[in-house]
Amino acid sequence: SIQQDESQLYWTLSDNKDLAGIDVEYSIDGVSFRRIGVVAPGSSTNYNYIHRNLNIGSNYYRLKLRDKNGASTYSKVILLTYKKVAITVIKALKSNPVERIAIVPVLSASVQIIRWKLVDLQGRVIRSGMQNLLQGENLVNAELPNIPNGFYHLYLVTEDGVRAALKMLKE
Known about the structure:
171 residues; mainly beta; 0% helix; elongated
């Protein structure tokens, strides 16, 4: 799986008693592989490896299992696709009109904080809040308890300077 900016590889072997070592191999085209790491066999049959500096797009991995007798076998190839988010995007409200919670999808370029405020048509701040964002897809939940029905503006701003002004109807 890909978490943040790294591939986290996990595997289980059925038997590792004759295993001399595990080479983790990597490719960006699925054809030409190079060794990026070596994992020593242990008493467990569960292993993991973390790969940093991913290629944006396709990242292929396979294992080369080296036996104590000198023979080697390869695992099947797995593909992980890395889609790095380059900019933060604040999208439209998930639903409008809004009943109790205004939900706004946000695609965040990094881990950061988003601040929001609900403003009435007279320019008064009715409610405000903040939420932590993870890199990637997020849902910002602006809870609106005891807010009178009517038209409002929901203003959002992220730490990386992205701003949005969304018109909404509270019902």
